Amino acid sequence: MLERLQHRLGLQTIPGVFFTSAGIAVLFVALAIPYDKAVAASFGELTGWVARNLGWFYILSVSSLLVFLLALAVSRYGRIRLGADDSRPDYSNLTWFTMLFAAGIGTILMFWGVAEPISHFARPPFDGVESGSEQAASSAMTIALYHFGLHTWTIFAMPGLAIGYFAYRHHLPMRISSLFYPILGERTFGPWGWAVDVIAVLGTLFGVATSLGLGTLQLNSGLNYLFGVPASGLVQVLLIAVIASIAATSVALGLDKGVRRLSQLNILLALGLLLFVFVVGPTVFIAEGMVQSVGDYFDALPWLAFWTETFRESDWQRNWTLFYWAWTISWAPYVGIFIARISRGRTIREFVAGVLFAPTAFTLVWFGIFGLSAIHVEVSGQIPLAEQVRTDPSVAIFAFLEAFPLAETASALSVVIIVIFFTTSSDSASLVIDMLTRRDDQPSLVRQRIFWAATQGVIAATLLLAGGLEALQNVITSLGLPFCILLVFMAVSLYRALHADYRGYSVDDLVRGRAFPEVEAGADPKQETEYVPEAIDRD
């Protein structure tokens, strides 16, 4: 029946994945609009249950995956390429990095670059730390870097590495379900695999919708500051429609013409804003603070990575760390596939080093400049930033820029950067969702990509109208859990495949139990032979 519907609509999809994902998204919107309070309350209760009972699982999983990736990079598997042994990267390091940044957490940095450090500076989460103190400033920077540094990029790197490995080295379809081929075998290409891809699609839809929602709140605040545009639900819905339209145009142009050019433009604009704040702000204070913040971050990382608030009654971790991890995890399918698409030919060691450390270094600089400058503005009494952020986090960067010369120009530039960041996030996600919902041998239809871009916008508008920032946080914290579980199994599957690959066996050998036969006494192990991966022609 679904195949007949697909032919009637002129689509090119895997019907079980496409229509199930689209149906669930439509059902959510249909229920959330008339029953917004009930839906918001239900997700609030679900989020509370997840935080109380499974918050530790989020913390342990992400930190363990970071250790796993670092171990892979320095191990004997680090020399394995994402592709044939003679393959080389498609993009230069600079182009690769700009695409990583713009499609990854550029949107998040614009929203939280000022808001998070100031929030923790005014209300420290650790016992015995006095608000507004030197220790509060140090811990505020450490927490911000913890939330947006190595752990965030671990969540993106794990699926990106696994997808690139299985797609380019073993020629499996570039879908999340392919990562479980060593575990599921041929069932990967049936209902079990479709279920995995549906989870990935829904996670991506709601994760990007959450970002669009946060970005819209911030954009509305910027337009209110610059032009007096009222901050209201109607204006926010209109802004989402405009961003979705721009994203649809970009996604129709494809990866190279649309996403790459927008990414390169936006990184230049973001660097310009960053340099402006550094030069006109407290330059020496920023430089000294960045050096100290790096040391504080790496000093606190071992215990902070496993901190679960066991001995205190607080909702802090639910509202911050768990929300961030769940939000990032929901982005992981889309960002992972996007990173894999632009990373063919790199070794595992190059991939892990690049994806973990290059964006983290930029994050350190970003929070060093914006976060430390914001703390300086607050301490000097120029602007009551903490009070404004407590009232409305979306206004943080615009209130912050009032303390500098050319405030209106800088705020206008920030608005442009925000729009482009959300556009690249939305169009990249639409390209990836389209890949997840069709076979490799089917063409990518523009109308399908536009459909997913529009769906993201509709979900974002629905979540905003259903409860604003709190609704966004509750929905994403709940929906991130299924994919967090998949990330753990993903690591197991990747390790099994790498171990077989190193010994000279294919993933088919692994599935059929032939990968690790006992070696007869005196015989040479098969790992001594050169292995050329076999193509697996399945969709």
TrEMBL record:
<feature type="transmembrane region" description="Helical">
    <location>
        <begin position="322"/>
        <end position="340"/>
    </location>
</feature>
<feature type="transmembrane region" description="Helical">
    <location>
        <begin position="55"/>
        <end position="74"/>
    </location>
</feature>
<feature type="transmembrane region" description="Helical">
    <location>
        <begin position="352"/>
        <end position="375"/>
    </location>
</feature>
<keyword id="KW-1133">Transmembrane helix</keyword>
<keyword id="KW-0812">Transmembrane</keyword>
<feature type="transmembrane region" description="Helical">
    <location>
        <begin position="395"/>
        <end position="422"/>
    </location>
</feature>
<keyword id="KW-0472">Membrane</keyword>
<keyword id="KW-1003">Cell membrane</keyword>
<dbReference type="InterPro" id="IPR000060">
    <property type="entry name" value="BCCT_transptr"/>
</dbReference>
<dbReference type="Pfam" id="PF02028">
    <property type="entry name" value="BCCT"/>
</dbReference>
<feature type="transmembrane region" description="Helical">
    <location>
        <begin position="189"/>
        <end position="214"/>
    </location>
</feature>
<feature type="transmembrane region" description="Helical">
    <location>
        <begin position="94"/>
        <end position="115"/>
    </location>
</feature>
<feature type="transmembrane region" description="Helical">
    <location>
        <begin position="450"/>
        <end position="469"/>
    </location>
</feature>
<feature type="transmembrane region" description="Helical">
    <location>
        <begin position="148"/>
        <end position="168"/>
    </location>
</feature>
<feature type="transmembrane region" description="Helical">
    <location>
        <begin position="475"/>
        <end position="495"/>
    </location>
</feature>
<feature type="transmembrane region" description="Helical">
    <location>
        <begin position="267"/>
        <end position="287"/>
    </location>
</feature>
<keyword id="KW-0813">Transport</keyword>
<feature type="transmembrane region" description="Helical">
    <location>
        <begin position="12"/>
        <end position="35"/>
    </location>
</feature>
<protein>
    <submittedName>
        <fullName>BCCT family transporter</fullName>
    </submittedName>
</protein>
<comment type="similarity">
    <text>Belongs to the BCCT transporter (TC 2.A.15) family.</text>
</comment>
<feature type="transmembrane region" description="Helical">
    <location>
        <begin position="234"/>
        <end position="255"/>
    </location>
</feature>
